[in-house]
Fold this sequence. Notes:
Layout: H1 16-22, H2 32-48, E1 55-59, H3 63-72, E2 80-85, H4 88-99, E3 103-108, H5 117-126, E4 132-138, E5 140-141, E6 146-147, H6 150-160, E7 165-169, E8 188-192, E9 204-208, H7 210-215, H8 228-235, H9 246-262, H10 264-284, E10 288-289, E11 301-305, H11 312-323, E12 328-329, E13 338-342, H12 349-365, H13 374-394
Parallel strand pairs: 2-3, 2-4, 4-7, 7-8
Antiparallel strand pairs: 1-9, 5-6, 8-9, 10-11, 11-13, 12-13
Helix pairs in contact: 1-9, 2-9, 5-6, 9-10, 10-13, 11-12, 12-13
Amino acid sequence: MSHNPVFIPGPTNIPDRIRKACDIATVDHRSARFARIFGPAVEGVRQVLRSETAEVILFPATGTAGWEAAVQNTLSPGDTVLAARHGMFSHRWIDLCRRHGLDVIQIDAPWGEGVPVEAFEARLAEDRGGRIRAVLVTHNETATGVRSDVAAVRRALDRTGHGALLLVDGVSSIGSMEFRMDDWGVDIAVTGSQKGFMLPPGLAILGVSAKALRATETARLPRTFLDFADMRASCARGGYPYTPAVGLINGLAEACAIIAEEGLGNVIARHHRIAEGVRRAVAAWGLRPCALRPELFSDTVTAVVVPEGFDGTKVATLAAEKYDVALGVGLGEVAGKVFRLGHLGMLTEVMMLAGLATAEMAMADLGFPVRLGSGVAAAQDYYRGAKEAARLAAE
């Protein structure tokens, strides 16, 4: 069995404390003991979202179910939503909406770009009748390693005086990158347990604003398992409308405690340091990220564009087969054109150096024009200075 860490953008490495927290004896989910587990998990998530008022809802599911719950509970058949397609996960959310009978205004952007805020603002300004009921934003496009500016989308909504809901996919950003639900006016934030919260897959985690809760009163899309009303009524009594994932919820409470102990600001700063070291390594290899500009760079995953004539999928495949290390493959329109280095969750600079070294070895084995040690050395140089700066700042 491999003891190597994974370098994929989720599921992420799991701390021993969280493993042990998930490994509990059966608990009656209608008992006071479960309520004592549930309460700290919900409050911890609210703190990670940087929200004072969000209602936190935990479904025994994954991030995709979170997308589904967001639209099912706030929209009706035929409603119009505004979304951009600029990567695999924004594409999938759009597809989900269309399968639910929603009218999607789709704005296409290159894979490597973020949400086109100016185009969004123009469409919102044109919509004087308020036909658009929701704006969908993928905060961190995991397929391309692109971060979009959620705050800028909120400003576009405010400038146009538009009342649409702001629904945000934060699956691969929340708990790892800056995310401010209240300050950015996010109405529903969606994430999952297996990313920044460092848990196994199995929880769809949502923060829901008061405005979004009001929208549920008139929403007519069918829902049963993912019904906010059923969840809120049961959770108010400390229970669930069906059997919850008790072990995962106990693990979530522990994950939030770990984040609080490190300090959320320090967690975000650590992710930025690790990511910047990865980007220095990529540059030293003579390669570039898929994200087209520095302000778009994700701090949780870097999609590395491979040279013409090479196959990025083979880098990940060889790393797994020869070195027993998991790297990410390219998806959708960038399949074969990139490989991905995940750098989120339970990860340190020292661990990341191992992932960079493995990527270098795999590329060298495949004949890439990459000099062994070049990327690792560049990352080392950066980490040495960045760690010292972080230490001095903490004193």
